[in-house]
Amino acid sequence: MILSNQKSLFSIPSGVTFLNCANMSPLLKKVNIAGMDAINKRSTPWEITIDDWFSPAEELRDLFAQLIKSTKENIALIPSASYGIAIAAKNISLKPHQKIIVLDQQYPSNIYAWRELSKESGAKIITIKREYEQSWAEAILEKIDNNTGLVAIPNCHWTDGSLVGLEQVSSKVKAVNAKLVIDASQSLGAYPLDINIIKPDFLVTVGYKWLLGPYGLGYLYAAPEYCKTGRPIEFSWLNKKGSEDFTSLVDYVDEFKEGARRFDAGEFPSFTNISMAIAALKQVLEWGVVNIQETLAILTDDIEKRAKKLGLETPAKGAHAGHLTGVKFSAEQAASLSKTLFENKVYISFRGTSMRIAPHLYNDEDDIERLFSFLN
User: Fold this and answer.
1) Gap between the Cα atoms of 215 and 210, Å rounded
2) Distance, C-alpha 374 to centroid of its chain
């Protein structure tokens, strides 16, 4: 279903063309209100109950689980994608003869931890490059073999939205008994993902991009086996069984709470962020991720057609996600164009060799027309 324009739900001034949700989303008015209400409540701590420390987090866990068709038992609340990747790295063991597969120009939060694991284990990092007419899935599948220990990839590439083909890759990864870790920061909330089909070992995402939430709160999915014996990277009292009883906190326990809660970051109740994230995910679920994708695909298809008329290079049709695309420019062109667009309140990002264009439901064809008026 194609959704109507939702700009009225955001506080975006007239004259501003914001096509940069892949960097950071504007806040919905209701998310801003939820944050202010939470700040006001925080100013009167005597009104904060024990239930406030835990119940909102459980509600948020459940909302996120709905997005990926999981259960809240598999969801942990984390401050960043890199935090979640660090958890994955701590729970994946590799041998010296094995390979770690990543993509060329992959986002660094899904690279640095694997470099450390490579040093520790002796496993070799293989960086996948592809030809223009080749899909990421084709390029990845060529390199997966019985020596592959880990494939750590996104759902779509952060520089231009080119799709990775997780279903195909996951099937091959499982066939060789390797591990799969996904950074979905540039897709969840705008591109459908069914965890029951992809079956990763771990999936992480930030909450401040396509999930329309606050900065400093993200999400981790851990497969069931890790929820039973997985090792966290910190040991917070909040993660331990029985922590709801503040009177018994000095009765130290080794047992963790059920499920992926063992991986929750310290201070995860973060009252302000949790309240904002709940309001954001409720709205995303109300719109429906499939509907968001279909609606935004109309805009990125228009971008692709306009770019081709100007002789500019974009991802091959159907090869990029509907919510995110890129247009190729030289470094010299990018520097000049970035300055011009910024001066005229047209906001996009340049990433790698691409002008990355990331619309959302607050955008319309007039925004695309305005962008291209500076590209002609």
Assistant:
1) 12
2) 30
Tell me the three-class secondary structure of the chain, residue by residue: CCCCCCHHHECCCCCCEECECCCCCCCEHHHHHHHHHHHHHHCCHHHCCHHHHHHHHHHHHHHHHHHHCCCHHHEEEECCHHHHHHHHHHCCCCCCCCEEEEECCCCHHHCHHHHHHHHHHCCEEEEECCCCCCCHHHHHHHHCCCCEEEEEEECECCCCCEECCHHHHHHHHHHCCCEEEEECCCCCCCCCCCHHHHCCCEEEEECCCCCCCCCCCEEEEECHHHHHHCCCCCCCHHHECCCCCHHHCCCCCCCECCHHHHHCCCCCCCHHHHHHHHHHHHHHHHHCHHHHHHHHHHHHHHHHHHHHHCCCCCCCCCCECCCCEEEECCHHHHHHHHHHHHHCCEECEEECCEEEEECCCCCCHHHHHHHHHCCC
Question: What angle is formed at CA 158 by the lines to CA 156 and CA 160, rounded to 5 degrees?
Answer: 85
Q: What are phi and psi of 206, to 5 degrees?
A: -80, 165
Question: pTM for the complete prediction?
Answer: 0.95
The 10s digit of each residue's pLDDT in 330-372 is 878 888 898 999 999 999 999 877 899 999 999 999 999 999 9
Q: Which two tokens stand for residue 354?
A: 């691409």
Residue type, 197: I
Residue 188's identity, in one-letter code, is: L
* Backbone phi, psi, residue 109, to 5°: -60, -25
| The one-letter amino acid at 151 | V
Token readout for 129 is: 């490059």
Tell me the per-residue pLDDT of 114-141, one tens digit each, with 9 for 90 and over. 999 999 999 999 999 988 778 999 999 9
Buried b vs exposed e over 219-248: b needs ≥16 C-beta within 10 Å? Answer: bbbbbeebbeebebeeeeebbbeebeeeee
324's tokens: 């995110």
Structural domains present in the chain:
7-19+289-373 (3.90.1150.10), 41-286 (3.40.640.10)
* Residue 79 near residue 267, CB atoms below 8 Å: no
